[in-house]
Amino acid sequence: MTIFYVLISIAILVLLIVWAKLNPFLAFLVAAISGGLLLGLPADQVAKSIQKGMGALLGDLVIVIVTGAMLGKLVAESGAAQRIAGFLMKIFGEKYITWAMSFTGLIVGIPLFYNVGFVLLVPLAFTISYQYRLPAVYVGMPLLAALSVTHGFLPPHPSPAALVAQFDANMGLTLFYGFLIAIPTIILAGPVFAPFLKNIKAKPLKTFQSDPKPEHELPGIGNSLFTALLPVFLLIGTTALNLNWEENGSFSPVIKLISDPSTVMLISLLFATFSLGISRKESMTKLMDIYTDATKDIAMILLIVAGAGALKQIFTDTGVSQELADGLKTWDMHPLILAWLITAVIRICVGSATVAGLTTAGIIAPMVDTMGVDPNLLVLSIGAGSLVLSHFNDGGFWMYKEYFNVSVKDTLKSWTLMETLVALAGLVGVLILDLII
């Protein structure tokens, strides 16, 4: 009966988002309250559990997500992303244009949230498409594949960062493993898949073509690349330092402080404020306005993450998670495949990759210790599952359709298939790493 009530709670969440079109944050709260009452949690404890779950999850994430949004916004507004895209085009040339777009999406997509990266880079893809007279979908798909992979696999993006916190994984190792899986996945869903899309007719609307900044207004390529990738350098570098440093050494506390993802993101943002702002004669007032706008962009993401934490806490406090763990032990399925499958089902029903990943985390988190799998790989498995089969209930589906001005049928043949390739390739990559690590 307990499992039945859990399914009802998740069904309430899905129906409120998909059918009633309710905001996901509100849907999470309603589902959490309903689940708590159905599962026998005393009424006066339901609100306390919700508050505890929201606070616990946001406490680990709010600095990472907010500073990440600020950094991404600055990279976009300063022209650093445009500089990186132009630089890669010069290196790869027209013949390998899909590779150039893939690398642009990978590099710029690390500090940028998906929606910001989409709005910023897709118009650049249109410009390149017109310049070289190539099909827009053929040029744009490798870019979108890379943005999607970074969104689902790599911290500091909201879902993988939240999963790292919930599973007590190591953000640096997750990022390192994520890169090992992300690169072949992007190649498959980008340069390998794109040639099959050359016949799809797309007529991008003039509205979605941005005017690039003049060349003399752009920051240098070295500055642009180093600033955009600084969080990656710091996370991987400090993780390696932690692994090779004595646990009780005199500098151990300092290293742990510097290697904390929140500190890494703060250092990166402060550096970017100077390198892309102050050093280029931008006023502090304008820079702070950019950061304020960035927080508006991700306010709802923070609330959705908090709502997912509330539902997770309800499952924990009612003992459901442990009961599910005991039940799932009897399933003859690899834990990483099981996590991927649960996430994929929720993704298909709900549409949101972030909601799917965080909902699965609420179910899986208490089982991590008994599953016998690397929590860093579990993060990536769920991240891959959260991208599968994007369709009518996913905002990304409609953004792609409208920006590229293609039919629904062609959107399914291109966008939906690309997302599914990413999800399947990600799962295969995780399972291969599981055999090696």
From TrEMBL:
Family of the protein in this entry: Belongs to the GntP permease family.
Keywords assigned: Cell membrane, Membrane, Transmembrane, Transmembrane helix, Transport
Highest taxon listed in the record's lineage: Bacteria
Signal peptide: none
Keyword Transmembrane appears in the UniProt entry: yes
Keyword Ligase: no
Membrane-topology descriptor: Multi-pass membrane protein
Protein known as: Gluconate transporter
Transmembrane segments: 5-20, 26-43, 55-76, 96-122, 134-154, 174-197, 218-241, 261-278, 298-316, 336-365, 377-400, 420-436
One Gene Ontology molecular-function label: gluconate transmembrane transporter activity
InterPro entries, per database record: Glcn_transporter
Taxonomic path: Bacteria, Pseudomonadati, Bacteroidota, Cytophagia, Cytophagales
Any one annotated GO CC term: plasma membrane
